[in-house]
What does this fold into?
Amino acid sequence: MYDKLILIDMDMVIADFNDGFHRAWVEKFPDREVIPLSKRKDFYLTKDYGNVFKSDIVNILHSEGFFLGLSPLNGALEGFAALKKRYKEVRICTTPLRNAHSSYEKWMWVANNLSEEDASNMILCRDKTLIMADYLIDDKPNIEGLKTPVWKHIIFTQPYNIEIEGTHFQWGDNLEFD
Ligand SMILES: [Mg+2]
It folds into this structure.
């Protein structure tokens, strides 16, 4: 018997999506402005950078190797291990991009950086409201879908969601949720 089932998002909670994007952006467009994470105001890169750059942003995110090349977020691997120790049942729950390699790369990333067991157990889905669990730790401010979620959303704190009301969490924080 387990205590609680925790879903945990991948990008900007475990994997440093923002850093991966910035590295690719600077390499491809060295003359363009880079918005540091601390200055990000919106969850979506296109909102912060502007729609004029949308196709360049999308091309980077969809490029092969993008997800596989991400670094773990600071403190995430240790934090994930601590969470698993406390709750036993912890599942990565992530939305792949609409292309053939994104799901594969996310699976491989989890196998390489966490464990094959975590990769086998991970949930790849577009609509997280369809998944039953006690908590979802996710940096996305508003998570909507077909259902009213049964889980409680714990906002993984990032500069672009700091103003959002709710229960916030970062690696290193107390793991007792209520
Ligand atoms: Mg995320």
